[in-house]
Specification:
By secondary structure, the chain is mostly helical. It has one domain (about 20-155). The protein has helices at about 30-55, 65-80, 90-110, 125-150, and strands spanning about 5, 10, 20, 155-160. The strands form two sheets. Strands 1-2 form a two-stranded antiparallel ribbon. A two-stranded antiparallel sheet has the order 3-4. It is elongated and about 75 Å long.
Length: about 170
Amino acid sequence: MRAAGRLYGRPAMADAGVTLEHPNRRKASSKATRLVVVVLLLASAVILIAISIGAWEAIAGAKALQVVYILLYLALAFLVARWRRGVLPLIAALAIVLLIFALVSVPGWLERDKDGFTEPAIASGVVALLTALIVPLQLLLIGFSLRGFRQAWHVELERPDDGGRRGDAAAVPA
């Protein structure tokens, strides 16, 4: 009745004396991937904040979506920093959508020197450059988040607290 002591895949109180290990989280490649994903999410959020502050009056109708993206990216960076592998496909999907928005909006920021356009607080060329910087960041974010998903951060191994393995003759007291 080993399964009776478990709740949602985590050891319950009946499994006292058992330590959970995540062997794939100790690998240097997993740590590097996690760090890169967190840095890319934070960099994307910072650029979105800069665009929002500098061009808030000139942004037509995507103000709410921009704020939602900033908050989501900050929350997802926190979750990835805590080894939550399940959010990585969501990050890739959000990055694809933001990539499309950025690709579509760069030409519009470059053509703001015509009559009828309000000039943002920072130059529209700078806003265009910041928007263009989002494109490679999102491409990298897609690649690294999918790489992290393949690294199986969720794999758990149970180890007795005495350091031996279950079933080992040396771990069984005489």
